[in-house]
Amino acid sequence: MWQEYLFPKDIGEAVAILGDGKGSARIIAGGTDLILDMEAGRHGVKTLVELSRIEELNEITEEGGMIKIGANVTCAQVCASELIKQKAPALSQGARKLGSRQIRNIATIAGNVVRAQPAADTAIPLVALGASVEVAGPNGNRTLNILDAYGDTFAKSNIDSTCEVLSFLHVPVQGPWEGSAYIRLDKRKALSLPILNVACKISLAGETITGASIAMGPVGPGPRRATEAENRLVGGLISPETVLEASKLVVKRCDPRDSLVRGSKKYRMSVISTLAEMAITQAVNSAQA
Amino acid sequence: MDRIVVSFILNGDVVEVSCEPDKMLVDLLRDDLSLTGTKIGCREGECGACTVIMNGQAVNSCLIPAAKAVGKEIETIEGVAHGRELHPIQKAFIEKGAIQCGFCTPGMIMSAKALLDRNLTPSSDEVREAVGGNVCRCTGYVKIEEAINDAASVMCEAAVRGGGK
User: Fold this and answer.
1) Which pLDDT value is given to residue A189?
2) CATH node for A55-172
3) pLDDT confidence tier of residue B165, bands split at 50, 70 and 90
4) Which of A33, A52, A79, A102 to mutate: most B Cβ within 10 Å?
5) What pLDDT score does B164 carry?
6) Per the CB < 8 Å rule, is B58 touching A28?
7) pLDDT band at B140 (very low <50, low <70, confident <90, very high)
8) Which CATH class is domain A180-288?
9) Tell me: domain A4-50, CATH 3.40.30, correct?
10) Where are chain A's structural domains?
11) Which residues of B touch A28 (CB under 8 A)?
């Protein structure tokens, strides 16, 4: 498969190595998906570039109302982070569901985003939480809303790992009257792909919902926001009826495929509203806690 | 293809091996170092038979390029016993009948050890989470869970007797 495995000392060196490779060098994060892809003959990589010796990418910090997560941060680190548990609970809950303990110990949040699967356990919460990603490339740095990091086709990332590096994720800190939650439907608790997943963030002013964000997968090529349901919630008073009405609207943004692994389109269209209802309710409870 | 030299700490000893640049850790352990206790089940991170401990964390060695292990501390099933004295987790697996064909056992024990090395009083959920990535096709999981709980008690008592916390 690959012929070289390199550990650059900083992000600039990583970008330079990728540039020299002219498409044949690629970033490896945890590698838990990439290794399998390469073994299946995809990518044609000659040089793998690992960022683990760039220490600034190893940390989770809080800066100016944002949680900053470096590219080397693993799912296990996210699960263990009190900061994320308190101030971005949907992400903490999502990270706990990914793969198995062994996978979580090595797989990174950044890799989960760049891999661009439509129902990634950390990416769906990141979309609901309004995260952004910082990308270093040959033409300097750019910052993207996480949804803009996804292309229009299945599992397509707009971040090109053969010339760019996702360096940091930025997640807005949850305020005192805000809450978030993540719900996943699956066949078993470990090592199973989500049949469906929903993350929700809610902002409250007393009994009034002032902000709502709902992300879902896999109901399209990438993560989807449930805009109609969000609009139904905002401005409304908290009540089971409001939550139920909004939950029914999420199907407007769902177009899942029939899948032997994840279930039929008909089944998934039938249950997504129930999952949304659970996610919204838990996010409201989290905001009131 | 130019070979690479991979150096890391394996079961307490420094090892240095020359290998192909795209060698996976599980193959390095089994083929180059003759440590065949680490098993290959699925080769895609789904079964846990190849679990080893890297810098204190359980990982699937089938998904770890050997190059990634450079400078790390790796522990395999061969390093768990003290000479002929089995580790409390190994003893508990035997006593509880948590082994049938034995193929998943090294991986199960390494996952359990990664947990008990940092937590001697795990909850039922924590035990299940620790071995959730290890598949057993013979016994079911009840005896395995019992064995890990028993080992935790034994190790906890030993730590208390030894003046630990």
Assistant:
1) 87
2) 3.30.465.10
3) low
4) A102
5) 59
6) no
7) confident
8) alpha beta
9) no
10) 4-50, 55-172, 180-288
11) 65
